[in-house]
Amino acid sequence: MNAAPQLYLLDGSSYIYRAYYGVRDLATAAGMPTNAVFGFTRMLLALLQDHRPDHLAVIFDPPREETFRRELYPDYKAHRDAMPEELAVQLPHIRRIVEALNIPALEAPGFEADDVIATLARRFAAEGVRVTAVTGDKDLLQIVGDGVDLLDTMNDRRSGVQEVLDRFGVPPELVPDVLGLAGDAADNIPGVPGIGEKTAAALVRRFGSLEGVLRWTGLVSGRKTRENLNAHADRARLSRILATVRYDVPLAASLADLARRPPDLKVLLPLLRELEFGALETAFTPPPPGVVEIYCDGSGRDAGPGGYGVILRYGEAEKELSGFEPAATSQRMELTAAIRGLEALQRPGRVHVYSDSQYLVRGMNEWLAGWRRAGRLESPDALKNQDLWRRLAELSAQHRIAWEWVRGHDGHVFNERCDRLARRAAEVGLRAENERLAAEERREGTPERDDLPPPVAPAAGGEEIPYEADADGQLLLC
Predict the structure, then answer these.
(1) Is 419 labeled as catalytic in the residue annotation?
(2) Do 303 and 194 have their domain in common?
(3) Total domain count, the chain
(4) 385 and 435 Cβ atoms separated by less than 8 Å
(5) Catalytic site residue 297?
(6) CA distance to 14, 16, 33, 95, per residue, from 22 (Å)
(7) Exactly one of 274, 409, 410, 441 is catalytic; which is it?
């Protein structure tokens, strides 16, 4: 059976503001601010690489003054400050990026992005498509259901029906009822005075809906709460309407219209150069003909769990590798990552290996020849991580390899992606290892203990040691 197609609907406005406030003080040499464009593009690229959706659209909001909610309630979102000028000038460039990536950009006059997302999600989920709304907006939790979930990429959190129940205490379809009573300060939705989200959820659970609460106010505990419900019933109903997404936005987009297509590199690469996004340009520039690029990174700590992540690129092809070691240092994971990448090559050739580990790169470029002359690869215990260095020496002899250091966690797309792969592998491996140990204890009848320390989570290595040019890193590290 074929897997259901995956459709991702991205709340573009949410991403734009997150990017603007998440990346600061970035501008071109001419002084044009680019922080929002850079952050938006990097987050969008991470989404494409980590989730590889079959179909994708970016949904934008119209000016809030032009939505039907503003007509119903002039104070809707009226408390929000005007868009910062430094952000406003970047919006055209963000749209140019989306267009160059060949991603459909959708918006509907009079409707917010949430309404467009809800309409498309319901339509395509009914056709058997698996829909993911990409947003950090809690209001959209109301659309979760069969075939539809939410993804908050900033917090790496995916929400289904159970997560909505955990968050609001009611099923998704009753989220607007809760917000009708409690209001929503972020959108300036008033709600009923004196009723917070927890009380609102309890009332909706008890009486089944907002209308049920208003019908049976005489049974509500607390004189002041009863008085407020009676006095502000119309405001509660209005608030519910404001908080409810629409599913009837007139959009003609078909699933085929939203299919992922390759970026238009003839447009995209010059645009990235214009914006001075060298690191992002690298992500879309294929390796030179006949060269395999290997990006690798490791994550771990002394005697703790570790993971590695590897990306291989050849022409237009790309492959990811990752793995877990239950006990490893960050140095061993850095070396292991490079080994796994080289082992994946099927025949000798020209290879360019990139790593943020000075230990690995300087070892292969500067120290390895001296270790060979001194016999340190063969003499037992003459070299820290000797088994891995020996394996690297064997593999490097099979290819023409250039080893290059890249500054880690500095906006380099592939380095950050390998780091995510490594950390994810370590986390998944650690959970599996803990479950295996727990299962063994149960089989052996070992009583569970509550005095054991919690498992150590993987962590990235510390700052790289700035070795002197002629220094032997092994002498400094041993």
Answers:
(1) yes
(2) no
(3) 2
(4) no
(5) yes
(6) 12, 10, 14, 19
(7) 409
Q: How far is CA 33 from CA 88, 101, 168, 273, in A?
A: 10, 21, 39, 15
Same domain, residue pair 214 and 342: no
Q: From the candidates 12, 39, 180, 298, which is the catalytic residue?
A: 298
The residue type found at 46 is: A
* SS3 of residue 75 by DSSP: coil
d(CA 190, CA 75): 9
**Marked catalytic residue, from 61, 114, 187, 356:** 356
Active site residue 137: no
Q: Is 435 a catalytic residue?
A: no
pLDDT digits (tens), the chain, 478 positions: 568 899 999 999 999 999 999 888 899 999 999 999 999 999 999 899 889 899 999 999 987 778 899 889 898 888 888 889 999 999 999 999 999 999 999 999 999 999 999 999 999 999 999 999 999 888 899 999 999 999 998 888 999 999 999 999 999 999 999 999 999 998 989 999 999 999 999 999 999 999 999 999 888 888 898 998 999 999 999 999 999 999 999 998 999 999 999 999 999 999 999 999 988 888 888 899 999 999 999 987 766 788 999 999 998 889 999 999 888 888 999 999 999 999 999 999 999 999 999 999 999 999 999 999 999 999 998 999 999 999 999 999 999 999 999 987 766 888 888 998 999 898 888 888 888 888 888 887 755 544 444 443 444 444 444 444 444 544 444 3
Question: Is there a domain that residue 175 lies in?
Answer: yes
Q: Is 356 a catalytic residue?
A: yes
For residue 50, the enclosing domain spans 6-243
pTM above 0.85, yes or no: no
Which one of 149, 297, 416, 472 is the catalytic residue? Answer: 297
In a domain, 257, yes or no: no
406 in a domain, yes or no?
yes
Element (H, E) at 412: none
Asked if 213 and 132 sit in the same domain, the reply is yes
Last residue of a domain, one of 209, 243, 277: 243
137 domain-assigned: yes
Q: Which two tokens stand for residue 142?
A: 């109301």
